[in-house]
Protein: Rhodanese-like domain-containing protein
Organism: Pseudonocardia humida
Amino acid sequence: MTGPGVPTIEVADLPADAPVLDVRENDEWAAGHAPTARHLPMSELTGRLGEIPADDPLYVVCRSGARSARVVAYLAGQGYPAVNVDGGMQSWAAQGRAVVADGGARPEII
């Protein structure tokens, strides 16, 4: 667990086909993200709640796991079955999972 009441999963335990919601900002997303992830920046979350996928569970990722933990706590309070991806995209990339960048650039986690 990353904080009280925040459901968390390690990247190694994440199913290969898990629905991932990336809450990093636009520049972070463009530099490198999971190929099947959906993007909804944390800064825009409350104004775009209608765009939250209805996946159960919904795995939420950021760079290191701190912002996504806050998003998971918020979403859980709204009734969403959200789970924080511990270690975020840094752990994702370190585990050798696929990362892509916008525009065909070399992907990196910033």
